[in-house]
Specification:
single chain, about 240 residues, alpha+beta, 4-stranded antiparallel β-sheet, 3-stranded antiparallel β-sheet, about 45% helix, signal, Lipoprotein
Length: about 240
């Protein structure tokens, strides 16, 4: 049930992003009052740890108030806050709202049930280049499905890539159209091996979105203090 419910939320979000905030024509003051505290608190906490999107508060309040009343009423605080992270992790959405390039790509959020199975890890790895502001140079990405039974939705997909000049392979567990989140730990092993100061820190919205930051351990500790207990990042 949770997966089905979030899929509906994801489609709603995608639709609002594509039309550039169509909800402005149907302003709902009561629903805006319901969502504003979650948006304001999330943006304020993020600003305290160096990710400042506070200028988007009014826009996001208007757009999230388009959500049906039953979803807003039934959704726990963690999900509503998670929706804010999902918005901010969408660079195309931010560009559409006029956010400048220096502020883009400070987090990366995506649904772990993906649409394009053939490129799910290629897209992920390419996003890491942007998220790391070029500290991770990833190229020569391959996805080998020879160990996958597509009809059964099972098997092992071998993901090959070059990171900062060195070749790596990751054996991803294949399960239909679901992303294997354990690749995040694999990437962090590479970062440690290459003696880089930052790591990928992950959290979720409580359902099926993965939210990633490329930051130092000190930053992660500050984030966890700010967002405790609902949101905590870890390697």
């Amino acid at each position: 049930m949770k997966r089905k419910k979030l899929l509906g939320l994801g489609l709603l979000m995608a639709g609002m992003v594509l039309v550039g905030g169509c909800g402005t024509a149907n302003k709902d003051t009561a629903k805006e009052a319901r969502v504003r505290p979650y948006i304001h608190n999330t943006l304020t906490k993020l600003a305290k740890v160096g990710i400042d999107y506070t200028e988007l508060e009014d826009t996001m309040v208007t757009e999230l108030s388009v959500f049906p009343e039953d979803i807003l009423a039934d959704s726990p605080e963690q999900l509503l806050t998670g929706i804010v992270f999902n918005y901010l992790g969408n660079a195309e959405y931010l560009k559409g709202k006029g956010i400048n390039s220096q502020q883009l790509d400070q987090l990366y959020a995506f649904d772990m049930e993906v649409f394009d199975v053939n490129q799910m890890y290629s897209v992920f790895l390419q996003k890491l280049v942007t998220l790391s502001n070029g500290e991770l140079q990833i190229s020569d990405i391959t996805e080998d499905f020879s160990g996958v039974d597509l009809d059964a939705g099972t098997g092992t997909e071998v993901v090959g890539f070059v990171c900062n000049g060195k070749s790596y392979e990751y054996s991803a567990k294949f399960y239909y159209d679901w992303f294997d989140p354990k690749i995040v730990a694999f990437i962090n092993e590479i970062l440690a091996e290459q003696q880089l100061d930052k790591r990928l820190y992950a959290t979720t919205d409580g359902y099926q979105s993965l939210i990633l930051f490329y930051r130092t351990s000190e930053w992660a500790e500050a984030f966890n203090r700010a967002f405790a207990p609902d949101f905590q990042v870890s390697e």
